[in-house]
Design a protein that fits this description.
The complex is a heterodimer of chains A (114) and B (112).
Chain A (H helix, E strand, L loop, with lengths): L4 E3 L2 E4 L5 E6 L6 E8 L3 E9 L2 E4 L8 E7 L2 E6 L8 E8 L7 E3 L3 E5 L1
Parallel strand pairs in A: 2-11
Antiparallel strand pairs in A: 1-3, 3-8, 4-5, 4-9, 5-6, 7-8, 9-10, 9-11
Chain B lengths: L3 E3 L2 E5 L4 E7 L6 E7 L5 E8 L4 E4 L2 E6 L4 E6 L8 E8 L8 E2 L3 E6 L1
The chains are: A mainly beta (114), B mainly beta (112).
């Protein structure tokens, strides 16, 4: 069974450019999470969806960040315009309600904004 | 509110036991988790314990839960170099409908 699939794995972009990160959750999972990991702040929850509906986006740092889930098998996290302080690893994760909230992570998208 | 605290670093010799500790603040936690992150990879679930349990053992891993002190520990017996990674403690309040709260992670270094 394929796990959570994220793309791109690595991206280097210039400040001011738009960045789009993509995620395919595990088939059948009804929760999808976007996390950001940095050395300073550790793992931060940005936003999560249930059945494609955003439930809590209070972790999204600024209006420059937006996330969508148009269907059960795809989500995007967009940063526009990007800034150097957005450099981090962005993880997508998914879970299935009712199994103790175990969540499964993708391999991450390593973003560098120069 | 929820908060999970871990020490940031731990260094052990190969073959010794490692004990990684975690404290959490919310006594309503129902599940507590340990995740492992190897370099350049995502987090992988290692094990979890339900709050009505005191201990769970899975091969080289032993999880101990002290609910009174809100303290969780992960013991790795016969630590190997392949165990070098970051270990995250996480708590969940309700089964299935709230996100996990993660600690900052403990970086375990195993010295050969």
């Amino acid at each position: 069974d394929a796990g959570v699939i994220q793309s791109p794995r690595h991206e280097v972009t210039e400040m001011g450019q738009e960045v789009t990160l993509r995620c395919k959750p595990i088939s059948g999972h009804d929760y999808l999470f976007w996390y950001r990991q940095t050395m300073m702040r550790g793992l931060e929850l940005l936003i999560y969806f249930n059945n494609n509906v955003p439930i809590d986006d209070s972790g999204m740092p600024e209006d420059r960040f937006s996330a969508k889930m148009p269907n059960a098998s795809f989500s995007t996290l967009k940063i526009q315009p990007s800034e150097p302080r957005d450099s981090a690893v962005y993880f997508c994760a998914s879970s299935l309600r009712g199994i103790g909230n175990t969540i499964y992570f993708g391999e991450g998208s390593w973003l560098t904004v120069v | 509110g929820e908060d999970v605290e871990q020490s940031l670093f731990l260094s052990v010799r190969e073959g010794d036991s490692s004990v990684i500790n975690c404290t959490y603040t919310d006594s309503s936690s129902t599940y507590l988790y340990w995740y492992k992150q190897e370099p350049g990879a995502g987090l992988q679930l290692l094990t979890y314990i339900f709050s009505n349990m005191d201990m769970k053992q899975d091969q080289r891993l032993t999880v101990l839960l002290n609910k009174k002190d809100k303290h969780l520990s992960l013991r790795i017996a016969d630590t190997q170099t392949g165990d070098s990674a970051i270990y995250f403690c996480a708590e969940s309040l309700y089964s299935g409908n709230t996100p996990l709260v993660f600690g900052k992670g403990t970086r375990l270094s195993v010295i050969a």
